[in-house]
Amino acid sequence: MAVITDGSVKKSHVTTAVAYIWSDNSVIKQLQIQAVNVTTIEAKLIAICIGLIPTIENDNIHNIIVITNSISAASKVLESKVNPLQNMVISVASAIKAYLFRDSRNRIHIWYCPSKAKWPRHQLVDNQVKASTNAPEFPCKNSHLFSQKKECDDILHE
Q: In whole numbers, what is the pLDDT of the chain averaged over residues?
């Protein structure tokens, strides 16, 4: 089972996070979430989380490969040190822990696939992220990292 993910932030601060779940050489599930006022790493982390959750809930899956163009976002999923993204991933980390302890055969592998590699399966996800034009219906407040980034950008602009 492969989970191929990507996330991006447009200039309008609208984020699109996409995950495709592949099995037997075909897409079995497409997931997409949009948000506002989050950073790029948060967008990529959201994409990984939305792809992992339905995959690890399946008792018949023992080997999951997460393919992402952001190893730094993937490392945040199980990072134990305190960080601003921890609130976002705490439930996912708990679900991953339960998945790994449920069966000794269960494994999660993370593979890096840069967008410039133009691997067709990752390009499908990347193209959907880039083509997305919908704005979220319920805009959320700014994330902590986005607030820091905005403050830094404002200072540099002044």
A: 85
